[in-house]
Amino acid sequence: MGLIKFLFNTSVFAAAGSATAFTLLTRKSVFAAVPPVSDDAFKAAHLDTFNPNRNPAVHDRCVRRVRLDKIRPDLLESEGGLVTQFCRGIWGGKGYEAQRRILSRYHESEKTAHQLWSPEALANSNYEVGTQITDHFEVIQKTPERIVMRCGDSPMKRGVRETDGLFDMEARVLKDEGVVEFALESYFFQGLGKAEGITSKWMDMLHRVYTKMWMETAIWNCMK
Q: Where does the signal sequence lie (predicted)?
């Protein structure tokens, strides 16, 4: 339980101080059925290149819906404003603080000075294609409703990697239902060599806890 306690102590959930409180705070974020990667031409092309051995992957999608009247009006007026603010809330918020500090300690240097490192830079970036984050993420696609990042290793490693993945942040206005649907979709795989399996149930559980933390802190950044 050490990692979970560490994340709690360095995040907004420290105020809650218990697994029960965490469950209550994140109860509206749910893991939904994932669409086939083959349905998304952009993702399919990426995987064809960087997962040449068709290794198994961890693929999940966390979804949270928020009523439109709870969202900041200015974010609904500009094209791409909502998903950009959602993205800022993930990387510049308390949910990423623990990992940001760890990566900064080991990877921030003159070589990576062009990347985003400080909470201020992460909270104000427009996350255009090519933006690199804490030597672990890079924006590879941006549309008015989604921002997709490559992850798993340093963005300076351009070819096939030992560990690789995609992280998709989405914010879609569903006017007929009067809600905004936020989603975080992850796809992790081994690029080099032939993988025997995927991550353990323990690692999968930690990933899901972390995803819910990101979702909640990011959505707070978009609300009135």
A: 1-21
